[in-house]
Design goal:
Blueprint (H helix, E strand, L loop, with lengths): L2 H8 L13 H12 L10 E6 L2 H10 L11 E7 L6 H16 L3 E2 L7 H8 L6 E9 L13 H4 L14
Helix pairs in contact: 1-4, 2-4, 3-5
The protein binds flavin mononucleotide (FMN).
């Protein structure tokens, strides 16, 4: 098992955070991982709002359907798409950031339950831009067990949809 796979295996949705801040060096590595993510035709048609201010974090958490634990983390990342752009590139970018944060020992949680108008108002995101998802980033204050996943034979198919694929780890 190499470090990349170990990081992917270890990632969990974390919903309890310690208040400790994130050193700038770590934050910059997470942001750089996002910047290096691939995008279609290298358009880089995304922006990220890096939320550290405690009051803005609190109001962002409120806009995330009141998931107030999001604001317990010292950092929230909000992935924004430019006008008329789809969500695929931004999703890849945020996943890069999330896995980089995981590899540095931080917890994260994809946040897709939010009121887009409210998040835009809190973060000053222009009306014609889109939001992919947000994530808190901070030291975990819980160690949740892995959530179950569907069995491989339900997910993977050999050559044609519906055909069984031999799979074992
Ligand atoms: C697109 C997306 C949106 C999500 N939105 C939320 C959310 O708003 N609140 C939350 O607590 N978890 C949210 N989750 C976390 C999922 O519930 C979680 O990833 C799933 O249960 C699997 O658990 P794991 O991440 O620990 O493997 C979201 C996950 C994804 C991928």
């Amino acid at each position: 098992m190499n470090e990349t796979l170990e990081t992917m295996w270890r990632r969990r949705s974390i919903r309890r955070y310690r208040p400790d801040g994130i050193p700038e060096e770590h934050l910059n590595l997470v942001l750089e991982a996002a910047r290096r993510a691939p995008t279609g035709s290298n358009r880089q048609n995304w922006r990220m709002v890096v939320v550290r201010d405690p009051d803005v974090r609190r109001r962002t958490a409120e806009a995330c359907n009141g998931q107030m634990w999001v604001a317990d983390a010292p950092l929230i990342l909000c992935l924004v798409t430019l006008p008329g752009e789809g969500q695929v590139n931004g999703t890849i970018v945020l996943d890069h950031a999330i896995l980089a944060a995981t590899s540095l020992g931080y917890g994260t949680c994809w946040i897709g339950a939010y009121d887009a108008e409210k998040v835009k108002a809190v973060l000053g995101i222009p009306e014609d831009h889109g939001i992919v998802c947000l994530t808190p980033v901070g030291l975990p204050a819980e160690r949740p067990d892995p959530r179950p996943r569907k069995p491989p034979d339900e997910l993977f198919m050999a050559d044609r949809f519906g055909a069984e694929l031999d799979y074992s780890l």
